[in-house]
Design the sequence.
């Protein structure tokens, strides 16, 4: 890992770990090696980071993705990396009770925006005045 300065912004290692997984899955190992090499981060393909990283490393990786891949492919890799990160966080970092609360809040927000019960069929909602 590059050494972060005391005031330098940090980001979790999943920003790199899940990008590597998504890139390899969608574009192949060779593409992942080239993108990571261009960003100066090849070391993370052989030893995944285990601690917070300087944000500048992830910015370099994202710039390399954008430079190396066509826009639609880079967007697909970023979306897949985001999905993988969310799955990891839900499985390993967010307690079950908090997950249920988040789902309820999502359903409530969706219902409130659409005034429809269809997106959350197992939820009961209080009647709300629309005036």
Sequence:
């Amino acid at each position: 890992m590059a050494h972060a300065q005391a005031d330098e912004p940090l980001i979790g290692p999943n920003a790199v770990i899940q990008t590597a997984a998504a890139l390899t899955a969608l574009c192949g190992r060779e593409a992942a090696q080239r993108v990571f090499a261009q960003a100066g981060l090849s070391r993370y393909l052989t030893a995944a980071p285990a601690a917070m990283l300087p944000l500048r490393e992830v910015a370099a990786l994202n710039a390399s993705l954008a430079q190396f891949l066509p826009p639609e492919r880079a967007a697909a890799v970023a979306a897949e990396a985001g999905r993988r990160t969310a799955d990891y966080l839900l499985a390993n970092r967010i307690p079950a009770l908090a997950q249920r609360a988040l789902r309820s809040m999502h359903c409530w927000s969706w219902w409130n925006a659409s005034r429809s019960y269809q997106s959350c069929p197992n939820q009961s909602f209080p009647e709300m005045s629309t005036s």
About this structure: The mean pLDDT is 83. Strands lie at 10-11, 53-54.
